[in-house]
Design a protein that fits this description.
The complex is a heterodimer of chains A (142) and B (183).
Chain A (H helix, E strand, L loop, with lengths): L5 H23 L8 H19 L2 H6 L2 H21 L25 H24 L7
Helix pairs in contact in A: 1-2, 2-5, 4-5
Chain B lengths: L1 H19 L3 H21 L3 H21 L13 H25 L11 H14 L4 H9 L1 H22 L16
Helix pairs in contact in B: 1-2, 2-3, 5-6, 6-7
Classes of the chains: A mainly alpha (142), B mainly alpha (183).
């Protein structure tokens, strides 16, 4: 698996950063526009999957190694759970502690953007880790 | 509503092809057809959040299925005996009975989308004021029904831990190493 042809590599070089940027946009604007943490995270993972398919396993794993992916995944899950547990300060699980702000602005809706960032981080790195585990680490003795 | 029927017939044909075709690669592609038609249905129903999630998950799953599971190999054909004929007859009987009773039951359902339920009415009127999120889907997912999202995140976390733990390189046997349980 050393990558595909020159055409695929050129197109991927142009597109991959835009795909990942769109994923980040979906995660950050999850409380304003359609999208959210899960969809944005999967798009980020799809960008890395595209890099893996086009350039082989070396390039994406040098940007985001398997161990780093698994650490990021745990951090995302802990952000989400931590925000949920933080609600106990004011009373109950998942209480919206932070100020609401003005609607339709990026800094609004209290804990929802924080949860979106946590879920996006978690889903993106988790799907990439599964893809790496299935493709790169597969048994070579076939 | 005619486009729903067309898309549903399209999905059913795709699913039947996915089950019946011999080549594993064609089967995976036919499964993708079902997913993309479902995405179109979500768009027509004006649910862009679900449609985005559906189409992107479908693409990633297709790539993983084609590239990672070795879908280029062909299936070995299973010879059907009397047992398979019995199973087919049972399935058809069940489907006929189920369709008769479901048509009977669905005649009494209210029209699609009306009347609005109590709970969703309160989400639509109070959602923006109570949570401050302009996207009501996000306010339901991460505020009103955040427990469900936490459970879903836990499911994904467990699945990834399982996949990495099974496929990791450290615990793998060497090629010529013998199984201890044989001796």
């Amino acid at each position: 698996m050393s990558g595909m042809t020159l055409i695929v590599k050129t197109i991927t070089r142009l597109l991959a950063s835009l795909i990942i940027l769109f994923g980040v946009y979906l995660v950050l604007h999850g409380h304003l526009t359609p999208g959210g943490g899960f969809a944005g995270g999967v798009i980020i993972a799809a960008g890395f999957v595209l890099l893996t398919l086009a350039f082989g396993k070396k390039l994406p794993l040098s940007k985001l190694s398997e161990k780093a992916a698994s650490i990021f995944e745990s951090v995302g899950a802990l952000i989400f759970l931590g925000v949920a547990l933080l609600g106990f300060v004011g009373g109950y699980f998942f209480l919206n502690l932070l100020p609401k702000g003005t609607p339709f602005k990026i800094l609004s809706a209290g804990i929802i953007p924080v949860c979106n960032i946590g879920i996006g981080l978690k889903v993106g790195t988790a799907l990439f880790a599964v893809f790496v585990a299935l493709i790169v680490l597969r048994i070579r003795s076939r | 509503m005619i486009e729903f029927s067309l898309l549903l017939i399209f999905m059913i044909i795709g699913a039947i092809i996915a089950v019946e075709i011999k080549s594993l690669l064609s089967s995976v592609i036919a499964l993708g057809v079902v997913g993309f038609a479902l995405c179109l249905i979500f768009f027509i129903l004006r649910a862009p959040d679900v449609a985005i999630t559906q189409i992107i998950v479908e693409i990633v799953v297709l790539v993983i299925l084609i590239r990672a599971t070795g879908a280029k190999r062909d299936l070995t054909e299973v010879k059907g005996g009397i047992k398979e004929k019995f199973a087919l007859a049972t399935t058809i009987l069940f489907l006929v009975v189920f369709s008769i009773f479901s048509i009977w039951a669905f005649c009494d359902l209210p029209k699609f989308g009306v009347p609005l339920m109590e709970v969703s009415k309160s989400y639509i009127t109070d959602g923006l004021r109570k949570t401050g999120a302009a996207n009501l889907v996000a306010s339901v997912l991460l505020d009103y029904r955040a427990y469900d999202t936490l459970g879903e995140a836990t499911v994904l976390f467990t699945a990834v831990i399982g996949a990495i733990a099974i496929l990791r390189r450290k615990g793998r046997k060497k090629i010529d190493e013998r199984d201890d349980t044989d001796s």
